[in-house]
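Exercise 7. Given the components listed, write out the predicted structure of the assembled complex. Treat all entries as one system.
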Amino acid sequence: MGQLSTRSIRTFVLRQGRLTEGQQRSLDEHWGTFGIEPTEGGIDLSQHYDQTAPVWMEIGFGNGVALGHMAQNNPAVNFLGVEVHLPGVGHALVEITNRELSNVRLIRYDVLDLIEHFMSPASVDRVLVYFPDPWHKTRHHKRRLVNATFLDLLSTLLRDDGLIHFASDWVPYARQVQSVVEEHPKFECLPAGDEFQQIVSLRPETHFERRGTRLGHEVTDLVIRKLPN
Ligand SMILES: C[S@@+](CC[C@H](N)C(=O)[O-])C[C@H]1O[C@@H](n2cnc3c(N)ncnc32)[C@H](O)[C@@H]1O
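Answer.
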């Protein structure tokens, strides 16, 4: 695992968490099976999964527990988890092997560089962004992951009618995302209704969601559809 990002403004700070023994062992034993390294020439996802199936990409999966739940509950979907935090990647590998999952692969890379330089257009059916760093301070808002540039990248990555499921415990961030979507020609927010509820119900509670609700934060889910060309 080499360089993670070429960006000058980063959406993450690499936290210095130490790897537990179990995480280190999992990385040593299982990264070769479940990890994908971005290499020149790009990533052909069909080479990495045992089944041909829709691809759902979770960005910033944290400890990977929600990713493991979803992969177990949706065996007919190929999951691609993207995260930069090494202990989180190690933890996710423990989840994957404990649950004996075969439909998950992981990439350790800045997702913005990953999409821009290594992913094929129209290769992903759904993008999941659960509780991204809210970057509360005004001078840090430029570090928020979801903005017009991110939507531009996703408009290439997603297939037509592909979805983004965004969830946040920071209402001002959710409002900002909603208005960026309203202004973007390639996306629309799904109205509250059966389809919206069905998609939202697939999201397991996450570690950062629990943290937010303990602090009394309100949780907002947005489901965003890529409009066909
Ligand atoms: C606030 S945590 C949320 C983790 C998890 N989704 C949850 O709800 O518990 C945000 C995560 O996104 C990751 N992240 C932020 N920017 C990223 C990027 N550009 N590429 C990949 N991962 C990123 C961080 O390392 C962090 O683990």
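Discussion: Residues 11-12, 59-62, 82-85, 88, 110-112, 130-133, 145, 206-209 surround S-adenosylmethionine (CB under 6 Å). The chain has eight helices and seven strands.
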